[in-house]
Amino acid sequence: MDLTDLYNNLKTESVPDMVSFCKELDNLIQEKKIEYQLEKKVAFVSSSTMNGIKESLRAQSSKHNILSEVYLSEYNQFAQEILDDTSDLYRFNPEVVFLHLDTRTLAGENFFFPNNPDLNISQWKNDTYSLVQTLITKLVDADIKVIFSLFEVPDIAPLGVLESSTYGLNRAIYEINLSLMELSNETENLFLFDYDKFLGKIGKKQTFDERLYYLADIRLKPNLLSSFAFELAVFLKALYITPKKCLVLDLDNTLWGGVIGEAGMDGINLGPDPMGRSFMEFQQYILSLHNRGVILALNSKNNIDDALNVIGNHPHMVLREENFAAMRINWEDKVKNLRSLASEINIGLDSMVFVDDDDYNREMVRNFLPEVVVVDLPKDFSKYVLTLDNLDCFSTLKVTHEDLQKGKMYSQEKQRKTLQESSTDLSEYLNLLEMEGEIKINDKDNVQRISQMTQKTNQFNMTTKRYLEEDILSFIVSDQYQVLTLSLSDKFGDYGTTGLAIIKFDGEWMIDSFLLSCRILGREAENALMSEVISLVRSKGGNHLFGSFIKTEKNIVAQDAFEKLGFTKNDNDELNWVFNLKEDLAFPNCIKKI
Length: 594
Known about the structure:
By secondary structure, this protein is an alpha/beta fold. Helices cover 41% and strands 18% of the residues.
């Protein structure tokens, strides 16, 4: 059984549900009857009683096919656990620590006497931030990823109406949280969870039980631990699982209200009026996803002229034709259209999220394309934004320059296709592109993007090895490795950093990873990158360069690459290709080296 199936089959709402889930999971593990994508060691370190969070985190991470082993720190021993190198926390050796410190615990007497001159709230703020920074730094320096819960702003106000206009505890908390945000921007492997926002969604009065607090120092009602763990588990998904790439959208009653073929452009609901505002803001939310790198596509049963007229000319249409990487506006079934869109955009169906208001279309896609995530839009249009906001499909903890430029890149790709169609042959087309390529070696400033490429690239990827940022950095500073990147541009725009080669010396030089983004396939980029790899290895005294192709379901496009690059078959099963460095591989003429 798949771990995600187990999550879907069992209740995961209350603490008893979580305990039952974990018992069933342990039984299946012992019987070797459970399958999962990843296994991670996770610790939860807290300043208050959180009995049940261990089981809750195990259950909620299962939703994402992550088998988590969870360590729960001793009650209110957070500083001792983190600062003592010999503590049980470090013996557990976690990959991720959720650090959850309660405002009331750290505030002490300041919680009720923030205006007491003997206590000095400003000094408390500085001391508290210094303590938290020390704890975070200690964990990060131990190569542990830290998810820190930002401090809750108390809903108890000893200063009354003065609380918002004087320097009290609330303002001190705001300033500490702001300082932590700045620290997160500067610190690798520190990520922040907005705990106050989480409580606010539920209603703070509904999250706290005074009796439980005074009896057992419980700050969050036990019946909310599942919801809390659900939010935290999204961080595990964002850290370790590649997000979905493409949002595929219907048109009628999805991006606008009404059916364009019946109502006409003047009759659909779209705009700042009460009937159209939910659709306009839904489009605004989608555009924000697009602006951070989510690919958009259309899959609509419609007359194409009617639809394009709205997209191009409606005064309140937020999403325009240039925002969509591909469109299928026709009367074909939506399953066929999704396959066609995936082929055109050059992504897998498992990278797609499908949004449609029609129950029948959604069910068809679920049945015939189970790898596509299907979103159930509510009948109430006003809930559209919230529905999309509650998705975790596109969750990511970092956004690269390439992500921000992705929408523009697809618009540029349409121009390239027009040029290609007017060219007599491939050689002419490549020369007309006026490409420029830059090779960098051991570029420490690009570690985030390099790691992202290993995580996301599936098609032209010789070994499909996945690396985290810390792995890439360790390669860059090691004498045993060399990391080469290729950035490509042409007269239409910049492709960004889209090629990667990691080579390793272990008696002989070997290709550990060699990959290209799908958007530069067919541009001779592999020749450019490999030419530089060969030159580098030769300069280091190498006689041969070994490589291997590890076949997966998705990288068939790369299976002949070594042969085309001048490698020959090698008897070694693992390093099954070899390049004799007495030979040469010319840098392609269609790419200008810069």
